[in-house]
Amino acid sequence: MKRVTTIALTALAPVSWGSTYAVASELLPPDRPLFTGVMRALPAGLLLTALSRTLPKGRWWWKAAVLGGLNIGAFFPLLFLSAYRLPGGVAAVLGSAGPLFVVGLAALLLGERARLRTVLAAVVAAFGVSMVVLTAQAELDLVGVAAGIVSSASMGAGTVMTKRWGRPEGVGPLAMTGWQLTAGGLIIIPIAVLVEGAPPALDGRALLGYGYMMLINTGIAYWLWFRGIGQLSATSVTLLGPLSPLTAAVIGWAALGQSLSPVQVLGMVIAFGATVAGQLAAGTVRPKSEPFSSAEETDRNVSMDLTGDSMRR
């Protein structure tokens, strides 16, 4: 039951990310994806770091920078580049291939033995997503495809390395999330200035949209995501990723008046079923060894997360 609860809470992260398109299209300034990336990551990172009242020490300064670069600083710009160069459906399918990167990296770096049914679940989920988002008019752009693949690989590597390095003793997921979001936001700033120029003027709608993106879509969502990485296998966490494009499709239908064809509905059922099956398959995987933390250390860290600074959020 504890694992089911952890999976459900972690799944709220990709569900929240599925609202990004609707919020951006309805509330935010157009053609400013990098500025949006900064506004999502940096304020949320600074807020979570302030709430945790914990700064990195020693080697964790560069480790936090590396993780923030992989999960945020490189992932956001590459994702946006892919979205601009490709139809949204193609970009979403490339993103849904992320679990395959994690399966391979987790086997190589974490010793997680991925069974065939885990790989099949990832492939079937990506196929289901393609049924939902791809259209007959979809065209490929090599730069966009490359950016989409590298963005998925970057997020996958960040997920695996977050699991491999764990957390410093006495530090909960709130602080770790804050460090990574802050580092990622700082990395995006010069790219945003170079590509998009000065920040745009913001009206009330934009402030509302950025407030949601900062607090819910990024701060809380990434805290849940990194918390899940600490308690579940890397493969189990990343197999929740297809919930993001599925949520985007549901929001588009329910809130934006977009239609869903029978093929798209079937694709949603297939992708969701594969996501659930992937959790069952990943739950049976046992690592080759336990080089990073004992069960007692994990329990202690979880207890600290529930009773320490993270409760101030």
Would you write up a description of this structure?
The protein has 313 residues and is mainly α. The protein contains 15 helices and no strands. It has helices at 2-17, 20-27, 33-52, 60-73, 75-85, 88-96, 98-110, 116-133, 142-165, 173-196, 204-231, 234-238, 243-254, 262-282, 295-307. Helix 3 (33-52) packs antiparallel against helix 10 (173-196). It is globular and about 50 Å long. The protein starts with a helix and ends in a 6-residue tail after the last helix. Mean pLDDT is 84; it is low at 284-313.
Notable characteristics:
mainly alpha, 15 helices
Tally of DSSP β-strands: 0
The number of helical elements comes to 15
Structural class, judged by helices and strands? Answer: mainly alpha
> Helical percent range?
over 70%
- Low-confidence runs: 284-313
What is the helix/strand order? HHHHHHHHHHHHHHH
Q: Tell me about the largest β-sheet.
A: none
Percent of sequence in beta strands:
under 5%
- As a whole number of angstroms, the C-alpha radius of gyration is 19 Å
Alpha-carbon distance between the two ends = 25 Å
